[in-house]
Amino acid sequence: MKTLKKVLNFLGTNDTKLVLSLDGGGVRAIAQVIFLQELERSIGKPTHEIFDFFLGTSAGSANLACLAAREMKAKDILGFWSEENLKETMSKSFWDNASFLQTKPKYDSKGKEKVLSEYFGEQKLGESKNPMGVLTYDIESRTPRILSSYASPEISIKNAVIASSAAPIYYPTYQIEDGSWLIDGGIVANNPCLIAYSEAKKLFPNSRIKVLSIGTGINRKKISGPRSAKWGALSWMRHDILGVMLESSMYHEIITDLIGNDYLRINSPLGRVNRRMDDNSKSNLERVNDMGLSWWNDFGNQTKKLLSK
Questions:
Q1: Please, are residues 47 and 36 in contact by the beta-carbon 8 Å criterion?
Q2: Whole-prediction pTM value?
Q3: DSSP bridge pairs for 174
Q4: Handedness of CA 146, 84, 172, 284 (dihedral sign)
């Protein structure tokens, strides 16, 4: 029996599984959809037929749920990010002047719940058409948590995405079916590439794992060292301390060391795209769209090479 198991394990090493990892970043996650739309056009397959496992954080979790659970084509996911839906998910602002001194989250979750209900209804994670997971953080147990189709099948997809995208300051902490209070998975890893790889190894222990990781742009505006030495909480907030925390490249560097050319990261500096995650102005969304197209121009050939089994 042991000999047979060893033979099967050896044979399994020739199998390759493709993993899609999606960052959080609010409306900037539209760039991910634009890139995947170009990928689908080039390869001639929808994304859900290309990848074997999907994992995302925050806004990236919304994209991957559309891809994995509903098997939507990338071009159709753009409807999820429509002007009407963005207004709905960012309605009922509690802030008078967008001040970080406000005592409540900027938005409530009701608009987001309404939009996600229209797409997923009461569909459970276990009913996803493809293996998927979303990254969250449990504030009461102070631990990261992955809500997935295989480990937490009874959690609704709607609630999983709301929890994964409950960004502190922007949205309130969210309670899911089992009573847990969760916030945005970006607190743990806005780029969940290493977590996606780890989960895929659990699901496919004898397979070669390739990971495509797509970001939402990086804020490269220089922060003055001497000036920052005098900053308190408010000044740090004004100078994008959340962005600094979310843009850590540590997981990127670790997975690069682990699997080398079996990993590809798609991202770039923000350029003229607004760093704020909720800028849904027409001009900013056009820039986000252009960023996604530029990624395809820069990384399209590398992506097709990575995905070749």
A1: yes
A2: 0.88
A3: 182
A4: positive
